[in-house]
Each structure stands twice: as C-alpha cells, then as structure tokens.
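Project standup — Tuesday

K.O.: blocked on the structure for the chain from last sprint. Re-posting the sequence here as requested.
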Amino acid sequence: MPNPLNPNAIDLSFEHGYWHIRFQAMASQCEVLLDSDDKLLAERISQIITKETWRIEQKFSRYRSDNILYEINHCNNHIIHVDEETALLINFADKCYVMSGGMFDVSSGILRRAWHFDGSDRIAEQSEIDKLLPFIGWEKVRWRQPIISLPMGMELDFGGIGKEYAVDKAWQMLTEHTDVPALINFGGDLRVTGARNNGEAWQVGIEKPDSEGQASGILEISSGALATSGDSKRFLLKEGQRYSHILNPSTGWPITDAPRSVTVAAPTCIEAGMMATFASLQGEYAEQFLAAMDTPYWCLR
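H.V.: unblocked you, prediction finished:
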C-alpha cells in the first residue's frame, strides 16, 4: 500500500499475473494494472503516470496558492489569460452547465464553506447558505477563450471533473508508451486500454453502499470507461434523513431521493463522470434520465 506519510510514494507489486502500480492522488487511492510480467516496463509506466497525475493535481487543486486555479479564483474582476489545457477544462465545464440546465455548476464548490459531509448530523444553517448563493452562477463568469474573469468573491472548483480528466490523461500517456493491456482506476473512476492478453474482459466490482468495500455485483469491461457518483463516503445523517454531498447550486441544499450509487459506462472517463453526476442531480428521476440517454448504467438505492 502507498505510504500515507509520503503522498508521493509509489507501490509496485506483481500479483495475480499482472503488475499493480498504486499511489495516492486527488484524495483517492489510485492504481494501474498492467497485464504484463515486464518489471522494467511497469517501473517506467509507474513514473510516467504518477508524474502526469500529480502534475494535474498540483495545477488544478483548490488547496494550493501557486497554480492557475488560484489565479482565477483571486482575479477579483481582473482578466486572466489561461493556457490551452485550462481552457479545455473550462470549456467542458461550460458544456456541462448548458447540458444540465445549470445544475452542474463549477462555481458551486464554494458551498463547502457551509457543508461538511463527514457522516455527522451537522446540517448547514440556511443563513450560511444564503451568504454564499450570490457567489454561485456560471452565467456570471466572463469567459472568452483564452480570457476569463470572475466577479469578486466567486470561485471555480474542478473537483467534479478533475479526477476523470486525470484518468483519461493517464490512459493517453500509457497508450503512447505501450500496447500492453491495462486498467487505470482512480478512486473508482476507471478506463481500460482493451481486453486482457487472454482475451477476457477486466472484472470490476460495484461497491455496495455502506458495505466497507463489499461488491454488489461484477461488471466486465474490455473497452471504454466507468465512473461512479454517489454518497457512500460523503454524507450527513440527521433524524433518519440522509443528506448527499451532491448539491443543487440554485438552492445550496443536497439533492434528495437520488440513488446511493450511479455507475455509467462511456467511451472516456470524463464523459462517464459527467453522465453519472447528471443522473445524480436528477434525484428520484435518475434512472429515467439515464434510460432516455440510452447509456449503460447501474444504480443502487
């Protein structure tokens, strides 16, 4: 296992006929499975993927004061010129906002100041939420590539798309350096390069909510990606009412009656993550939404 005292530690081991690369990033346990017995290849791929993943994390983390996101979030109505990669994420966030009817809003991360989904019963006060709502609304952001400007007090948060983007970038880096079959899994969001060498699909378990890792079912995947949205790890519970960490940006309150877990398959991880989050934002209508989208999905309630 990665060393928790060293966030940049890499664990490399050969198990069950393939190499496991494990490391920590984006508040998640990350792993890459290489269907190969070539140790030198595994060592090289581990360096390539961890370097790229940690680069993305450092560049777009809201916890740092030395990256482009900090510059954007502290521009105070001034103009910021962004690079091509940042523009790519901003454009995707804009697309998500439009496609979701404003429900997927990367400016709503500021609500974390009122909500702390730690499994306790500490529900946010309406007065706290009301103070934050004026600073939410993607339509208030001035964006014309490559220039962006935020009103004073507003912030962007790429937490809803950053991990999936990192999976896709890791997939890209890996396929540029080897044709060995691989599975990339960052905290349950994953993508494969193809079927295993024996022709069989990779097997992936869908975690049962509140089961401490117990799988409710096994999926087989030989191409594309899977992403999951749910509240098994981040929630509040008060008087029998469960409050999900998935928030409605217009009210500042958790979405109600959504599935505990939504897993979606798509060609890329960032597309799968977008659809899983869109579905969760539909609340009780998540399954109907996904059925209408004609995309493979698995919901657990």
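K.O.: great, moving the ticket to review. The helical segments are 39-60, 68-73, 84-99, 126-132, 162-177, 269-281, 286-293. Confidence is low (pLDDT under 50) at residues 1-5.
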